[in-house]
C-alpha cells in the first residue's frame, strides 16, 4: 500500500492506494505542537494498518512555519571580506515606491554574527586572493561563545567556482563538527549574491529543525511500519528521499501546496486536458497556479512573505510558480478602520476554528458564511453548534456595526473572498499573457469546489473539473509524483557566434551529477529522464525567459530554432519583441526525474441508493433564497447529469452549481462541470 499525508494549516490529509487500486482518504486536525501526532492520527482514522505501508510520501509545513514564525536556530554567516552587509543592503527596487517610512526585511542573521574571511574570486571564478583558513578558528570560536548552532557560507562568485566554500565546509566539519553547515553553492549555481546568500542563510536557519523532524518521523515509520521507501515532497513538484531533504530543507518551503498543482497536471493527462488553471482552497489559504501543455511552471525567483508593500525574502530554489493568498475556509471576516468589511488573511485555523466547529470560536469565517447561505450543511460537521448560534455571533461581531441583514452579510463575505481569489487567478493568467478562456479550471481543497463555478464564470472559463479526491487532492498528487531534482548554472554567453562545446560540456557535467544523486536514492539508470532548458534574454535586459531545449546538444544548426522560440515566448509574456537585438544565454538548466512506479487508477464504484438527498433553501446572489435539489456525490452514477441550480455534497465539501451549469460524473469519479452562459 502507498500512503501520502499532507500537513496543512488547518487539516492533515491522507490518500492511500492499495495494490488493487482502491483509494482510501482521510482528514484530521493538524497538531501544530507535534506534527507527527497528526500524521499517525489520520492514518489511524483511515483504518490503515501501519504494517501494510510499502511506500510513504509526505508534504509538510514545518519549513515554512519555522521561517515565517522565526523559530529557527541561531545562525552565523561567513562571507567574503567586504560583503558582510549584503543581507542588510538587499535590493534597491523596493515594492512600495512612495512609502517614505518603508523598511527593508530584517536580516535573519544578526550583524555581529556575520563574519568576513579573506578570499576573492573574479566573475569568471578565477582566484584573485586565496582563502585564508587561519581566520576561521577565531570566527568559529566567536560563534561558539554566542551559542550559534548553524552556519551559512556564501562567498563571492562561488556559483562559478565553489572550491573556497568547500574548503570552509571541510575545515568546520573537521574541527568544529558540532555546527550544522550550509554552503550556498550546494543550493544554487546561479548568480545574484544577495539572493544566494539569503537562500543559504535560511537553509542553515531551518536545517537542524528539519533534520530532527524528518529523522524522528522516519524512525517512527520504520519502527511502526518497517517502511523504508519514504519520500518528502519538494517545492519543485517532485519528491526526494528523506536523506537528501535533510541536507537542503529549503527545497521543502512549499512542500504541501505544490503537490496539488502537480497532481492536476497528471489528472489532465488522464482526462485529456493539457491547459489548466488550478485553484486550491484550504482552511487557511487559497493557492493557484497554471499548467500549460501539461507542464507545471517552475521558477527560481521565489520570495517568502512578499506582498505589494513588502519585498520579502528571496530564495533561489526551484519552486512551482504559485500564487498564495490568506483566503480559506477559516479566514476571519473583520471590519477595518474605515468601516469596510475584509476577509483574511487571519484564520481561525483548526483550533478554535470557525464558529460552526463548536470549539469556542466566535469570529465569523468564510465557512460560517457558506453555512448561513445553505451551501454547506451543518449536519456534516461534528458539532453541537446550532444555526441560530452562528447567526447570533455574526450579528454581534459584524451585523450591528454594519447595520446589515445576516443573509446579505454572509453573501458579502463570500463575494469578498471570491474577489480576493479572482485577483490571484488573474496574476497567474492574464498578468502573464494567458487568456483564461483557453484553460480548464481544476478546483481542489475543501473550499475549491464551493467557489470555483462563480470564479470560472467571472473569468469566462467554460469548464471546471472537480477531482474525485478533491478535498485531499494534494496527497493524491504526491502518490503520482516522481523523484525530481533541478539544477542550473550561470554562464552569461552570447547566444550566437560562440563555440557551443562549453555549453554542452557544462550540461554533461550537471547531468552526471544529477544521475549520481538519483543513483544514491535507488533510481535505476533506465528510470532517469532528463529535460534541458535555457534562461535567455535580450542583451542589456535584466530578467530572463526560460526556453525548452529539445536537443541532445546545442549547435549552429538548432540555435536559430531556440532563438525563434525565445522571441515567441517573450512576445506572449511582454507583448513585444526586439529581433534586431543580440541575445544572451544566462543560465543553463536541467530537470532530472527518477521515475517511480505509479498506483493503478481504477474506475469508480457507485454507492447503492438514490443520489437525491433532499430539497433545501439556498441563497444565490442573483436570485436570493431559492429551493434547490441536493445530491450525494458518492451515489451519482457515471455519466449522470445534474443541471444547476443544485448542490452536490460529500462529507468534506460541497459543489455549488449555478443556474445553467451542467455537471457530469466521469468513470474515475471526477465531476466535470460545463459553466452555463459561457
Structural shape = globular
Largest sheet: 9 strands, mixed
- Determine the N-to-C terminus distance: 43 Å
Number of strands: 35
GO molecular function, one term: 5-oxoprolinase (ATP-hydrolyzing) activity
Domain Hydantoinase/oxoprolinase N-terminal: 2-174
Domain Acetophenone carboxylase-like C-terminal: 501-668
GO biological process, one term: glutathione metabolic process
Keywords for this entry:
alpha+beta; Nucleotidyltransferase, domain 5; 15 helices; ATPase_NBD; N-methylhydantoinase A; ACX-like_C; 5-oxoprolinase (ATP-hydrolyzing) activity; Oxoprolinase-like
Describe this structure in words.
With 678 residues, the chain is of the alpha+beta class. Among the domains are: 106 residues, ATPase, nucleotide binding domain (Nucleotidyltransferase, domain 5, 2-Layer Sandwich); 135 residues, no CATH class; 112 residues, Dna Ligase, domain 1 (2-Layer Sandwich); 63 residues, no CATH class. The strands form nine sheets. Strands 13, 14, 15, 20, 23, 24, 31, 34 and 35 form a nine-stranded mixed β-sheet that branches. A hairpin with a 6-residue loop joins β26 and β27. The protein is globular. The mean pLDDT is 91. This is N-methylhydantoinase A. GO terms for molecular function: 5-oxoprolinase (ATP-hydrolyzing) activity.
Could you provide a short overview of the structure?
This protein is 29% helix and 27% strand.
